[in-house]
Design brief:
about 450 residues; eight-stranded parallel beta barrel; three-stranded mixed sheet; about 40% helix; binds ligand JJW
Length: about 450
């Protein structure tokens, strides 16, 4: 496997999934605090109240990253720590946490990559309609400007939104994630306002003339037809339109996919003049989160469904399909590039067990090694891939699955908060050492 010298290797996390300290230092309530307290929404009623207690243990955690030998750390900022009421009065203690975190990273020579929105919307904004309310996009812009002004000279890599498909569809379309609303029209409305929020933050970042780069992160999943039939081919194209093109097209071409008429009709009332100019303004890079693929067959009239996984699966039930990463990178580069790409998340959940101080997770090591190899193949084929962040640094709160899906390369004992580097983490460490030695 060959990677360029300046390739960035990292680990990734998100605020609600690791920080804990949910009621501390003036943090406001987020939609995930509320949702996780709603009976039946999160497995075992788990919440992010304590999580990995990273808010208090960030120094120890940054030391662990340094021990792994990563170049970069992708984290997210909790909007309700900065603006507990979503807007208006700034909470200096919340801001101070991220300043201390960034300082600690820089002291250890680890480059910060900050995501501004990784799903923890201030609850007070949800009470005003959340991502169904256009004002939320403008409040997001204002919060982003604060972060750019406060951290823009030290943080050089910014991500506006993480996986807006998840925020919009799982949050407002099927209700599996916070805030738990379910209506297909709401999905499309929320998706549009999220894209607008991205565009507004991007515009504000450009106006500040800061010495860094900014992009968005999408969860993308290549879809394959179940057979060469025309029906399956068209079904596959619809699945791709729903998951991938509905976000890629507006960001890179400035309009929604024209082959999805019922979606276009539903979103039309929410589009205002100028929206697409903001949404499709040039970004510095695109972040891609890749976990798995879909195999799609036609079902019913104009419908489609995914076949069961064709190979081994992770604890999430997602098929392990490393070639999908290669196919995806080449496709995004061909259809939407050229633009620098980052893999901002890739990794796997397995039911790990701590035994005699050790976590043997050969499946995760194999998963990472095989996906790294596909990234190297894509680089060789000319894809401008700039970095790779493993999801996740730590076992953490995996949303609707609570603490029951372990994605970490570092094991967390949630009783004691002990961190134990898994075998996969040791493997990543030695992989990085070998790269450094050339
Ligand atoms: C889809 C649920 C059917 C996270 C999904 C549920 C049922 C359509 C991992 N990425 O924890 C996708 N993750 O925070 C961001 N990625 O459907 C980071 N995608 O609906 C990780 C969950 C996910 C999902 C979870």
């Amino acid at each position: 496997m060959k990677f360029p010298r300046d390739f960035r290797w990292g680990v990734a996390t998100a605020s609600y999934q690791i920080e804990g300290a949910a009621q501390e230092d003036g943090r406001g309530e987020s939609i995930w605090d509320r949702f996780s307290r709603t009976p039946g929404k999160v497995l075992h009623g788990h919440t992010g109240d304590v999580a990995c207690d990273h808010y208090h243990r960030y120094k120890e955690d940054v030391a662990l990253m340094a021990e792994l030998g990563v170049d970069s750390y992708r984290f997210s900022i909790a909007w309700p720590r900065i603006y507990p009421a979503g807007k208006g009065e700034l909470n200096p203690k919340g801001l101070d946490f991220y300043k201390r975190l960034v300082d600690e990273l820089l002291q250890r020579g680890i480059e910060p990559m900050a995501t501004l929105y990784h799903w923890d919307l201030p609850q007070v904004l949800e009470d005003k309609g959340g991502w169904l309310n256009r004002d939320t996009a403008y409040y997001f812009r204002d919060y982003a400007v604060t972060m750019f002004e406060e951290l823009g000279d030290t943080v050089k890599l910014w991500i506006t939104l993480n996986e807006p498909w998840c925020s919009a569809y799982l949050g407002y379309g099927n209700g599996v994630h916070a805030p738990g609303k379910s209506d297909l029209n709401w999905y499309l409305q929320a998706a549009h306002i999220l894209l607008l929020a991205h565009g507004l933050a991007l515009q504000a970042y450009r106006e500040l003339n800061l010495p860094g780069e900014i992009g968005i992160t999408l969860n993308l999943s290549p879809q394959y037809p179940a057979s060469p039939s025309r029906e399956d081919g068209e079904a596959c194209r619809r699945a791709d339109g729903f998951l991938n093109r509905w976000f890629l097209d507006p960001l890179f071409a400035g309009f929604y996919p024209q082959d999805m008429p019922e979606f276009l009709t539903a979103v039309a009332p929410h589009i205002q003049p100028g929206d697409f100019d903001l949404i499709s303004a040039p970004q510095d890079f695109l972040g891609i989160n890749y976990y798995s693929r879909g195999i799609i067959k036609a079902a019913g009239k104009d419908g489609y469904e995914a076949l069961p996984p064709a190979g081994p699966v992770t604890h999430m039930g997602w098929e392990v399909y490393p070639e999908g990463l290669y196919d995806l990178l080449l496709r995004v580069h061909r259809d939407y590039g050229p633009i620098p790409l980052y893999i901002t998340e890739n990794g796997a959940a397995y039911p790990d067990q701590l035994m005699e101080g050790r976590v043997a997770d050969p499946e995760r090591t194999a998963y990472l090694r095989e996906h790294f190899a596909q990234a190297a193949r894509a680089l060789e084929a000319g894809v401008p891939l700039k970095g790779y962040y493993v999801w996740s640094f730590l076992d953490n709160f995996e949303w609707a699955f609570g603490y029951e899906r372990r994605f970490g390369i570092v094991y967390v004992d949630f009783q004691t908060q002990a961190r134990i580097i898994k075998d996969s983490g040791r493997w990543y460490q030695s992989f990085l050492k070998d790269l450094a030695r050339g």
